[in-house]
Specification:
alpha+beta; Nuclear Transport Factor 2, Chain: A; five-stranded mixed β-sheet; 24 strands; about 20% helix; Nmd3
Length: about 425
């Protein structure tokens, strides 16, 4: 172990991992097998902190791993300890350095060498291309270990990486695991060589979840009961990382589902965000306490005249969707929402129109609509947000082309009551 400062704890610490067998070198010079991102690994790192220091006056209270770096070669641990009855909190950075242990060095230097390769296969769920595109961009941007890939291939519904090192592939898999709630299956295949020996290929099959940001989901009854949150089974997916965060729009309650719990009984979206439509807010009445950014409210809505289910090229034939007549409308919708702190009369929002939806598989009484998010900004920004969210899977180049408006004909306003017109985009 190499430290950078002589005071406890050091600001940075280097730990060594055998890139062939994935074992770590402890302070006694022994190579021990430990899985990364486990409580045992944190204990190992804490033990490394005391190597070469006088820790007789130090009592460690708590140590938690955090990911300030978002890379697979470095990480940090938040350390809380007492030194001479003084409570101290510090963050220690750890750098993982590749090395070959003595046993692997002897084995690899022999005449008969068994070569290891590793393959990572990432499969999209059904036709959900957006999660796979996002994960690919995140890996290439934040995971430094991906630079060691000897081969990569991207298709619409799958992503493939190949490595000639097990440890490097393991680091990429660990990065993916803490980035998104995935299911990982590991297999070993033997490959026959001409001399009768075998090479080995380690394969990680990674499955992406069937839900994504802003999807409408119906939580299975057994999982819904275990969450003990009350409210409705119909929820909005507000965030996906290593855990899945759901919001009940009827009560504002939030629930966190670990990846392990989700994959015990995986479920998909009952409505993807590509089926959302725009609404105009007529009236907002808040009630109850405000919890963070969530504020319950009663909303009066009017469906926008702009239909997001139209093909993109139809936008060029109807670029006057930015004006909506909010007159006496029998099509008003009255719903509860958790966005009372964000929405105001005249605002523009996106949500799911459930007036004609049938939920035969679940025992729920759905509201007329569920509002997901407010849309604001300039006209171009609003156009982009609508297309980016609602045309799931469409390339960004196509979206940008759709934002170029054609030459518009003059709008015939007639005898419209201008006081009832609301500019929503």
């Amino acid at each position: 172990m190499d430290t950078c400062k002589a005071t406890f704890p050091p600001e940075t610490l280097h730990i060594h991992q055998c890139k062939n067998c994935n074992r770590y070198l402890n302070q006694n010079g022994q190579w021990i097998p430990i899985l990364f991102d486990t409580p045992e690994f944190v204990d190992f790192c804490v033990c490394c902190l005391g190597h070469g220091f006088d820790t007789s006056n130090i009592q460690i209270e708590r140590a938690n791993m955090i990911y300030s770096s978002s890379t697979s070669h470095s990480f940090s641990i938040s350390l809380s300890f007492y030194e001479n009855n003084n409570h101290i909190q510090k963050v220690v950075w750890f750098q993982i350095d590749d090395q070959i242990c003595d046993l692997c060095n002897l084995y690899l230097s022999s005449q008969q060498i068994q070569q290891w390769t590793a393959t990572i296969k990432i499969e999209a769920y059904s036709n959900r291309t957006r999660p796979l595109q996002w994960l690919k961009e995140t890996i290439e941007k934040e995971c430094t270990a991906i630079k060691a890939a000897i081969y990569s291939h991207f298709e619409k519904d799958s992503l493939l990486y190949q490595f000639n090192s097990k440890s490097t592939a393991f680091r990429v898999v660990s990065f993916i695991k803490r980035t998104i709630a995935v299911k990982i299956e590991e297999t070993n295949d033997r490959i026959m060589k001409e001399n009768g020996e075998f090479d080995f290929n380690l394969t990680y099959a990674i499955s992406l979840p069937g839900i994504w940001l802003d999807d409408l989901v119906a939580v299975p009854e057994q999982l819904f009961t275990s969450l003990n949150k009350g409210g409705d089974q119909l929820c909005i997916c507000s965030d996906i990382s290593e855990n899945i965060i759901l919001i009940d729009p009827s009560t504002g309650a939030q629930a966190e589902i670990p990846a392990e719990e989700y994959w015990k009984e995986p479920f998909s979206a009952v409505k993807m965000r590509s089926s959302m439509r725009p609404f105009n807010v007529v009236d907002v009445t808040t009630f109850g306490p405000k919890c963070g950014r969530l504020q319950m409210c009663d909303l009066t809505l009017i469906p926008s005249s702009y239909s997001v289910n139209n093909k993109i090229n139809k936008i060029h034939h109807n670029h006057n969707f930015n004006k909506v007549i909010m007159s006496n409308n029998d099509n008003n919708i009255y719903v509860k929402s958790h966005l009372g702190a964000d929405l105001r009369p005249g605002d523009f929002c996106l949500g799911y129109d459930l007036r004609e939806c049938n939920f035969d598989d679940i025992d729920v009484n759905p509201p007329e609509a569920i509002i997901v998010r407010k849309v604001d900004g300039s006209q171009i920004d609003r156009n982009y947000i609508m297309l980016e969210y609602l045309m799931d899977g469409v390339d960004e180049e196509v979206i940008q082309e759709s934002l170029t408006p054609p030459v518009e004909a003059p709008i015939q306003e007639g005898n419209l009551d201008l006081n009832l017109q609301k500019l929503v985009i």
